[in-house]
Write a structure and sequence with these properties.
0% strand; mainly alpha
């Protein structure tokens, strides 16, 4: 990070121009010059840090800090999730799940069924982990029914997104709830009221619309089912139990954390600490991969050597995803270090807007400026907390403000957002297609969520 005695001397205008120029250069390098996204992100991150005035001796530290902090959360989740997805896919488990969903819901409603399952999985499980676990099922349904990946993938990605943004116990809304003094139970209820119709309109229906207009083939990044194993596929209940295992373990972590914040359990109790450690997302996925390797592999007669090759084959295709996602985090880290988001937020906070509008706009600007939805949400909540405390709002109004700030933190996901690269690479989309689909969907999720929260704020 920059030295503690370094202070950004540029004002909001020049900083905004630097950010806009950096994004334009990045898009030019990737779209026009066809430079690999990983290299383009490193080059633009380096130039942005230098132009914005970060001391030369600290530039590399800033770059590696942003890269490393993103990989610390993404690499384990994507790697373990890819292993689990590979086991589910090659054992025929994904095909079993796809057949069940199609039989029960019908071919036309298969995308709806996938999205509904993702809403349920998305309650305790984080966006990136849930997406990677669900992808083999999405790909299997897409291969069987045909059509664009967007028809099946956007409802799933949107489901995990709305739950991650709006509903505790995910970290962003939990932190905002604590900052603003809202009641977590009311925030959960209002978050669900916002998340479900928002998902239906902005993810499910938009996915159907985009799927008819953009032909996106089903990628093979997670491999395909082994024909020999398809003769002895796992039972439907077995596959469901394996997919539910990380859900249950992670819920033990997030649920106990929420109870601890509410004072219902002692956070330093040894049993609570042990359950939370087991339920940490990387540990939960590790346990699930080990269980899946036994249940879907060795117990079904797969040799140790074959199982090792299956797990190893999962890592190669996702290395590019992990590195590009980390580089996206590097770019966002540089923008945070330069103070671009803070400068814009300070300008906006002085405009005298209603607190719910100011919270949404500040979060949105922070999101556009530095990429991270969680950072945008928590920072914006901290900035408006004094005004909220002085306003004397009732519990429902407080919850509406939390949701409005959350809505701002999700809009306009673009090239400085690690999630942009994660979805784009797993869906095998180029940057232009990712902007036309993922960015539009995320913006619609934020705008509609804010509209519902503002309506509730006004009505109550």
């Amino acid at each position: 990070m920059p030295p503690e005695d370094w202070t950004q001397t540029l004002t909001a205008g020049p900083l905004l121009a630097i950010a806009a120029g950096a994004i334009a250069l990045l898009l030019f390098l990737i779209i026009k010059l066809k430079l690999h996204a990983f290299l383009a992100l490193i080059v633009v991150s380096l130039l942005t840090a230098l132009v914005a005035g970060i001391p030369t001796g600290s530039v590399i530290e800033v770059l590696t800090a942003g890269f490393g902090s993103t990989l610390a959360t993404v690499a384990l989740l994507v790697g373990l999730g890819a292993m689990l997805g590979r086991l589910v896919e090659t054992s025929g488990g994904a095909q079993v799940m796809a057949d069940f969903l199609i039989d029960r819901f019908g071919e036309k409603r298969a995308p709806f069924a996938l999205g509904l399952a993702s809403l349920i999985f998305g309650f305790p499980i984080f966006f990136d982990a849930g997406l990677v676990v669900m992808l083999p099922i999405v790909f299997s349904v897409g291969r069987k029914l045909g059509g664009s990946l967007l028809l099946y993938g956007l409802p799933v990605a949107g489901a995990f997104s709305v739950m991650h943004i709006y509903v505790p116990p995910h970290p962003g809304p939990v932190a905002a709830t604590e900052f603003l003094g809202a009641n977590v139970g009311i925030v959960i209820l209002l978050g669900l009221v916002v998340a479900i119709p928002t998902w239906y309109l902005t993810s499910y229906l938009f996915g159907r619309w985009a799927g008819r207009r953009i032909d996106l083939p089903i990628p093979s990044i997670l491999g395909k089912a082994d024909e020999d194993q398809l003769e002895n596929p796992p039972k439907f209940g077995t596959v469901v139990a394996i997919l539910l295992l990380p859900l249950v373990l992670i819920f033990a972590n997030t649920g106990l954390d929420a109870l601890g914040a509410a004072g219902a359990v002692e956070r330093d109790n040894p049993a609570v600490l042990a359950l939370r450690a087991i339920g940490a997302t990387p540990v939960a996925l590790l346990i699930t991969v080990l269980v899946a390797a036994w249940v879907l592999g060795r117990r079904r007669g797969v040799s140790g050597t074959a199982l090792e090759k299956t797990l190893d084959s999962a890592l190669g295709p996702v290395c590019s995803v992990i590195l590009i996602t980390g580089a996206g985090g590097m770019f966002g880290g540089v923008l945070r270090a330069t103070g671009i988001g803070d400068a814009l937020a300070d300008v906006l906070s002085d405009l005298g807007l209603p607190v719910i509008v100011a919270g949404f706009l500040i979060a949105a600007i922070l999101r556009v400026a530095q990429g991270s939805a969680t950072v945008a949400l928590t920072t914006a909540a901290g900035l408006i907390a004094p005004a909220v405390e002085a306003g004397g709002y009732n519990p429902v109004e407080l919850a509406a403000i939390v949701v409005a700030v959350a809505a701002g933190s999700v809009v306009l996901s673009h090239v400085n957002d690690s999630g942009f690269w994660l979805v784009g690479r797993f869906f095998d989309m180029d940057v232009k297609t990712t902007l036309r689909t993922w960015t539009v969907m995320e913006t619609a999720i934020g705008v509609m969520g804010f509209a519902i929260a503002a309506l509730v704020f006004v009505v109550v």
